Amino acid sequence: MSVYKKALDKEFYRLHPMLQKRYSFSNHAPFQAQGVMKSIKVGPKFLYPLFWLGTKRKLLFPEYGTNIPFKILNTPFVGADGEEQIHWERVFYFGEKKRYFNALMSYDPERNLIKDYLGEPSILYSDLVFIVSSDGSLRIESSKQRLVLWKIEIPIPKILQGLATVTEKYSEEKRVFQISVDVRNPLIGHIFSYEGEFKPNEK
């Protein structure tokens, strides 16, 4: 059973069937897709040094624009401690330049949520809550966050956090997955966002 099925339990079956297929990882097969981000936006210019540093950890980047090609690869595997994990690789193509937004997710049974380690090597941790909407779409909200410094994790005050809201759904009419991600800070406001569509690779 995938980490997402565990987190959602019976709610998993209220997802659109294509989202169920996407997040079930049957036979531990990876999910691969490609598409176009209609829009990628970044926050105020004074944050650019932070975005540039993010490129060194495959997390965030200063580039922005419209109609940006991208690929996604979700790979399930079992970690050294026996924990089931999902590696997320998201690659955005700005001409010849590639930018990443990578993460490693697993399930926390005690708190019934998804643990999300962002970047490679991880520099940020976030709790993720998965919610099924009435139309069968998936909503993901970040919660408590920690700064990851090697083996030390330091809680980040909420006022300094970049809180993410993700919405993913499937369009029957266009036969594509549609995704929107919005990251905001209580003080600054908009930090990073993207919106686009993608299709699974044909086997």
Describe the protein's architecture and organization.
The longest helix has 8 residues, at 17-24. The protein has helices at residues 3-8, 17-24, 48-55; strands at residues 31-42, 65-78, 84-94, 97-100, 103-108, 113-118, 124-132, 138-149, 152-155, 163-171, 176-185, 189-200. The protein is mainly β. The chain has three helices and twelve strands; from the N terminus they run ααβαβββββββββββ. The two termini are 23 Å apart. The protein is globular, with a radius of gyration of 16 Å. 11% of the residues lie in helices and 54% in strands. The chain has one domain (3-200): Lipocalin (Beta Barrel), CATH 2.40.128. Strands 1-2-3-5-6-7-8-10-11-12 form a ten-stranded antiparallel beta barrel.
